[in-house]
Amino acid sequence: MRFRKRRGPAVSLALASHPLPTIAMTGGLTAAAALSGRPLRECALVAVTVLAGQLTVGWMNDLVDRGRDRQVGRQDKPVAMGWIDPGTVAFAIAVATLAVIPLSVANGTEAGIAHLGAVASAWLYNLWFQKSWLSWLPYAVSFGLLPAFLSYGGWGGGSHGSPPTIQMTVLAALLGIGIHVLNVLPDLVEDRETGVRHLPLRIALRTGAPRLLYAASAYTLLVAAGIVWTALTVGLRQ
């Protein structure tokens, strides 16, 4: 999506948050909480917690990558386009971080630790891993921690729930790898021009981007189907 017209600070902040992935993650985890039988107030808490975490991840990505985005002329990046000051985005990250910590703990101690670990892993991707062949690792870690966030989740501090099943944890981590590949595929040309050498780019240079797209799509759909089957048969919690 390209934006030709300059936007105000509020709209620029929203666009810099990577709104589509943020909405998808928030909606998906909230729906998963509801399907697991969590009451409405806990589902609402899950939604707010995940939203706050995703906002920090999206904003940090645009802030860290603003130099590379400017280099390749990205017109869908408000920070790189100069529509919003980087200091404003950094302040927004700080505010969201101060919110996500108590929100995470409000889901329960173990659930809070799992969610904060997932967010921290995503930050590490933005700060370093996205440039290396280990780019898949933070995605696997972040997604792999999400079943624990849901299975241990409750209302208020303390211990709730029980550990997630091993099957669900492994499948969630595998799903994260597929999401990573699909997420970076549209930017392969720009990443190559700016010296980024994450794993999907290395594979695409050998196989071609179309083949990688087909393979990643089939892989992700297969893993997603496995998650649905596991949820219906084995379940989320041990």
TrEMBL record:
Signal peptide segment: 1-24
* Record keywords: Membrane, Signal, Transmembrane, Transmembrane helix
What's any one GO cellular component for it? membrane
User: How does the UniProt record describe the way this protein sits in the membrane?
Assistant: Multi-pass membrane protein
Q: Under the GO molecular function aspect, what terms does this record hold?
A: transferase activity, transferring alkyl or aryl (other than methyl) groups
Q: Gene3D superfamilies from the entry?
A: UbiA prenyltransferase (1.10.357.140)
| InterPro entries from the UniProt entry | UbiA_prenyltransferase, UbiA_sf
Q: Name one Pfam family in it.
A: UbiA
Localization terms from the record: Membrane
Q: Which residues cross the membrane?
A: 82-105, 111-129, 136-154, 166-185, 212-232
- Which protein is depicted? Ubiquinone biosynthesis protein UbiA
**Which source organism?**
Nocardioides iriomotensis
